[in-house]
Design goal:
It is a single chain. The protein contains one helix and three strands, in the order βββα. The chain is elongated and about 70 Å long. It has a three-stranded antiparallel beta sheet, with no helix packed on it. The longest helix has 4 residues. By secondary structure, the protein is mainly beta. The chain has one domain: Rubrerythrin, domain 2, CATH 2.20.28. The relative contact order is 0.21.
Length: 69
C-alpha cells in the first residue's frame, strides 16, 4: 500500500499515512482544527540492466588526430 504525506494548513504538522489507492484522500487534520493537503513526494528510480548508461549506448568518438592544415 502506498504511503501518502499530508500537511495541515493550521498547525503545519506533516504526517504520513498508509492508504489504499482507492481510498479518498484525507481532508481534516488530526488536530481537529485545520484542513490537510497531500504533498507530492519524489519517487526513487533505479535503472538496472544494459542500455541505461551513457557508455552503453554512446557512439564511438571519431579520432581527432587528423590535421586540417
Amino acid at each position: 500500500m502506498p504511503i501518502y504525506v499530508y500537511e495541515c494548513d493550521t498547525c503545519k504538522k506533516v504526517f504520513e499515512i498508509e492508504q489504499r489507492i482507492s481510498e479518498d484522500p484525507l481532508t481534516k487534520c488530526e488536530c481537529g482544527k485545520g484542513k490537510v493537503k497531500r504533498i507530492i513526494q519524489p519517487v526513487g528510480v533505479a535503472f538496472k540492466g544494459s542500455g541505461f548508461y551513457i557508455n552503453d549506448s554512446a557512439k564511438p568518438v571519431a579520432d581527432s588526430t587528423s590535421s586540417d592544415s
